[in-house]
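Format is chain and fold; as here:
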Amino acid sequence: MRIDRLIVCLSFACAASTCMARDVSKIDPTFPRIANCYGAGLSWASWDKGAEYWSKLSLFIGGCYDVHYDWENERWPKALEAAAANIARIRQVNPNALFLPYVDVVEGPDNPNIPKSWWALNDKGERWSGWPGMFRINTDLKEVLQYNLDKVRQDVFGRECFDGVFYDCWSPDKWLVPETAKLRDGQGIVMINPWNLPREGFENLNGVLAEDQINRVIDGTIDFEDFLALYLKWCTLSRKPVTTTLVCRPQTINDDPWRWDKLTQEERVAEQEKGRHDEQTMRFGLATTLMGDGYFGYDSGTMGRGNWWWYKEYDAPLGHPKGPAHRNADGTWQREFDGGTVIVNGSPYDVQLRLPRRCRDVSTGRVGTQFTLPMLDGRIFLPTADPETTEPDVTPRITAQLPTTLQVIPLAGELSSVRTPGGLELRLDAKGSLRRILWRGQQIMSGGMPVAVAAPWKDFHIESVSGGAQGPTSPAEVRFVYKGTLAEDTQRVEYTQTCTVTPDNRFVLHFDFSALTDLDIRMWRHYFMFPVSRYAGRTAQAGERTVVLPKALDQVELLPAASRFTIDGPDARLTIDTSMPMSLIDHRKYGTDDYLLAGYPVSGAVKQGAKWSVEIAVTAAAR
């Protein structure tokens, strides 16, 4: 909507310092529902600058009052006055928009007003930082949680222009969230960011932020069907109105906060602008969101959350859904709206769609009844009487049909697929990371590349990598070879990675490492993750010991260190042979719904010139 049209609609008398509280239970915006996380700028951008963008948003998370234990900061009175005035104007044009200030419970700046006893200390008795410029707070202290509750009661719920609160980096707990849910007679909105969608807390929360979880679906570390089921559960079981939000970033953006902190402003802007055009990730995230009743945001990620990006798909006049989403036989999910149809393809294969009526694809402009929908993509189709597009649609790159011989297929995004006739498939990216490990189209495990962390806790990253497929060298083998460096600040490790795949449904990962500098290793882990949703109730064996993988978290240690493991899945039995001792644990204790098989070949101080090797072989056999 143009600014000049907005001005005609507005009653400027409402641009006061506060807004009237309203009954949020009646909030029901049309679809798509677009959110801005942290960057809307209601307290610092002028109405003339922001009106056109703000008027189209349905949910404002932060971007007006973003508090990190600095409630007393002298900037807030003026900032809050500006935010309240802009909110009043926005509500005149868009009464369904929701406004949630951002509150950080777990981290604070170097603020002398924070009691010294509140800081979380490391094993050296020092404050520690998980984010540039911030230090951890000891949230085990009751007085810390009481302080946050009192501040939110007074300075957030006490301001009528706000509809509720957003707690960042917080999970459903037994005190702060339930107590916050009682504020404003239980009518205020309570939303949190636990990073991954949790499996509890529905009764006290209106929603959660799934921050970049879509990216982890694309990476293959989270199963799409599991993720979608949990998202739909949040849309159904949480308090109303629903505020669960899926926000994701371009796959091209490296979201390491310590790396980002060293970039110049010009370098940050250039990286963000390049990522802005990764529209497939945006479409996949948006279409997935539209399978439920939540909100969607797309921006440059944790390094620059809240960009004012807008896409034509956001303007699609879908109206309201006619019913819930359903799964099609080809693995796609579909939902019908008053104004059109949304289909998302979370499967690992391209799909050819056949629609019952002539439609226009909002993204490509194509008109017809048959469309190619690539894997990990989504489309909005609007009915039309326009003539069909005569040019053929793109041809699918890869389908679910199994090959008759060992096969290598280049895919979009610098991915390579290698498939066996029996059903094993690996997807490797240009850096050699295993993005997917599949058995007849189903994700059976994830992992492969080491996770290397320097003390106190900074991730090594891959740089200067080269290589790729060398084959098929024969009908009996495909080999991928990569050479590169793992780096963190001044620490460097040179490596060669070889991945060999054979037609008997077997792959072997071999790594040779050499320390180019002295190293201080907090953790060096080689691992595989096995999703609980797939393996719970199945058996795993190491040596003479066999366990039934638990459906609910009980004991963390499942199988002790060994060099051979057998894990029974619903469709295939996996045998893992390793050159180093590995052990199996229940990783739900540490925040993901997986069983973790891991080994740790080095740790602590490692001298320059040290060399070590790791080899892991995985064989899949049909059950």
Notes: The chain has three domains: 34-103+140-315, 326-383, 407-622.
